[in-house]
Request: fold
Amino acid sequence: MRRLVFSIVLLSGFLIVACSSGQPGIAADETSLDLGDVINGDILTRDLTLRNTGKADLEINDIITSCTCTQATVDPMTISAGQSGILHIRFDSGFHGPDLTGPLIRQVFINSNDPKQPELKIEFLVNVEANALSAG
Reply:
């Protein structure tokens, strides 16, 4: 009986230590955005909150965008457990020249050390309208 109690106490202690070390978890309040209409040549910026829902530091390893017309940064690149950071997105609607108009979809991919979701995708839609000055 004494061995059984000792084994249960030892196992319980191990489980408590294993669970308390935890893992990071990445989350965003929004992963799909509609940025509306923009005049070709204008630059749009948006900030989104990224949260670490885990129990260990979330490390942002890389940020990739689907097009060079879009830039993104995260501040800070390491987010403590239970804390948040900011994803800064910058979209240059005139990057492809004055003739590109219409709806566009762009993505930002955030790679982190979250073992359950190593890549978080943020997607946005924007409608690029012709610039009256360059059209005339």
